[in-house]
Amino acid sequence: MSIARVALFAAALLGAAAVSAFSSAGSGKVALSIAVDGAIGPASTRQLEDALDTAARRDAAVLILQLDTPGGLVTSMREMIADILASPVPVIGYVAPSGGHAASAGTYILYATHVAAMAPGTNLGAATPVELGGLPSLPGGEKDKNEKDGDQKDATGQPAGDAMMAKVTNDAVALIRSLAEMRGRNGDWGEKAVREAASLSANAALQEHVIDFVARDTTELLQLADGRTVEVASRKEVLATKGLPVETLEPGWFIRLLAVITDPNTAVILMLVGVYGIVFEFTSPGAVAPGVVGTICLVLGLYALNLLPINYTGLALMMLGVAFLIVEAFNPTVVLGLGGVAAFLLGSAMLLKVEGPGFAMSWAVIGPAAALTLGLALLTGTYVWAARRNPPRVGGEAMRGLPVEILDWQGGEGHVLALGERWRARAGEPMQPGDRVEVTGVSDLVLTVRRRDAGNNGAIK
Q1: Domain boundaries, the chain
Q2: Does domain 15-253 have CATH number 3.30.465.10?
Q3: Which strands, in side-by-side order, build the sheet including 101-103?
Q4: Cα dist from 44 to 105, 192, 251, whole Å
Q5: How many CB atoms lie under 10 A from the CB of residue 327?
Q6: How many CB atoms lie within 10 A of CB 223?
Q7: Which residues of the chain have pLDDT under 50?
Q8: 53-111 tens-digit pLDDT
Q9: Which residues contact 366 (CB under 8 A, 6 or more apart)?
Q10: What top-level class would CATH report for the domain 396-451?
Q11: Which pTM does this prediction carry?
Q12: pLDDT of residue 230
């Protein structure tokens, strides 16, 4: 009897252990993971938004946001932070793999996550806002001279540029401090990262209470996150992540396309290809392909620029420059060509309101694009100018001056051989069969001819 009781007790213990071991699998919970590599931009925002929607729809236990980024656009960063704060699914920020970093915008995003972790050999920080985009100041240039002379002042008496940067910096400090207070992290160091561009290694970040722990991989990450209490959508939730299966969500084709076209250099090239494709279609109706490709490229370029924080004055200058170059191609004046290049380069320099890592106009792209555009305009203009100086002749004009041979002649009329055909002809002077003459005009399919050289019936040249 006692043996039966012991056996029953052992079976109960084994059953409880089995239920405990497979509770996660039995509940169907899963940890979803996405990797944000490279600059933070519209594609990153869309990737996180889609991942959070999937996690909420599948009732995932957590979403692991793996970061390896040099930073990016402030607008995209703020959208990602807003999505994380409103997420019904806990988000674990994880700076990985080893050698990766979460700089600039990545630091703010890591502060916003419910649980923050880093892999060994990673770093974060350097969250100072970048300078507002626009025309760069040149040493000794007009802008520097004005600043040295103290001409550009704001209402407080500070230089205008310094005042603007101070506003942007204070706004960034307020944001990172609010995130630190919400997640219980070190707000003082966050301010230091903004004002002084400070950075930390993984272990130093743990000691400064910037992150919650250091994890070598996702398995250890979920094990260390298990049992932590986080606030998700205004409610407290205890994480149960130990032993959860991890499923990686790969970005779809649309997100990959966004990552390519939202590079401002790519967007500008797409617009140039689009404009010239449409112009070529208008000048050569029926080609079809240039018009189709040009329209697609132009729409993609405009869509990409709509997602970026652009300066519409810069965009207008670029389009004005392209328009000048197109006019230059069909009405060569040189002045329009030089003005078009100048407008295009100035617009490129002013195009972005705010530049960030991975989102800056590259002169290695803009310079050759402007030179190629000018070259095409000059080449087309050369052909147009040559065509104007030697206008094509058709019909009767094309036959004027044409050498012909007299076949038969009677009185003032007869027949001639012109272009391999027999034509009626008339002349005001006597002719003989075999004479070489030239056409002076055409009237009602009758040629008017005259001797090419008086007294000389030489061979036709």
Answers
A1: 15-253, 262-389, 396-451
A2: no
A3: 101-103, 123-125, 199-201
A4: 12, 26, 9
A5: 17
A6: 16
A7: 1, 6, 17-27, 132-156, 158, 160, 454-461
A8: 999 999 999 999 999 999 888 889 999 999 999 999 999 999 999 999 999 999 999 99
A9: 265, 268, 345, 348
A10: mainly beta
A11: 0.69
A12: 94
